[in-house]
TrEMBL record:
PANTHER family: ALTERED INHERITANCE OF MITOCHONDRIA PROTEIN 24, MITOCHONDRIAL. InterPro entries: AIM24, AIM24_sf, Trp_RNA-bd_attenuator-like_dom. It holds the Pfam family AIM24. This is AIM24 family protein. Gene3D superfamilies: Mitochondrial biogenesis AIM24 (3.60.160.10). The lineage of its organism: Bacteria, Bacillati, Actinomycetota, Actinomycetes, Kitasatosporales. It comes from the Bacteria. It comes from Streptomyces corynorhini.
Amino acid sequence: MNQQLTGYAPTPVVARMENHGRAMLKVAMATGQDLFARTGSMVAYEGFIQYEPNPPAVRQIASQWVTGESTPVMKCSGDGLLYLADYGADVVVIHLDDDALSVNGSNLLAFDAHLQWGVERVKGLAKFAGQGLWNVRVSGTGWVALTSRGTPVVVDCGRGEDETYVDPDALVAWSPALKVKGKRSFKASALIGRGSGEAYQMAFSGQGIVVVQPSEDSTDRLRIQG
């Protein structure tokens, strides 16, 4: 039986963050290299690792992340290997090199605690979506792990002059340097029983990437108001 299971055993550590399979994140923890992770995402660990839910240092920032719920962030510290997952969603690992990423809060799995981060309103969208869109901006040099409902596509917006249009409910993350605007449209899903009326896409242009998942977020983050 052991021989049959060898293909699932942990692999040697080669980076601070890496995938173990499609839907699990492996993090090499060390003293002084703390991690922020989505509360409840720990599935296993080796070594001595401590967890602090709702840490005071981030409580005020993360209070804007969700409404009516506790802070969805826990601080992880110690030495060992930490395994994180989010209900079988695909895990995407990104290393920022003095760069930034704007992430849908529900798709942010973990990030190095030394990175700068905060919840911010996406500019230029309030007139399309009532209250607008709030995202988590992470910047600096370090590791970030995202989740995607299925294998995502990463679109390089700098390859051509045309804008890239994305359904907001399928949007995972994008480069903050991109220009963003909304475009009204009649959503095709209104014709197949998923609702009716106007919706809109987000149009991206400039130099940067957009990460899109092959599944629309059921929270329906952005819709035309009024």
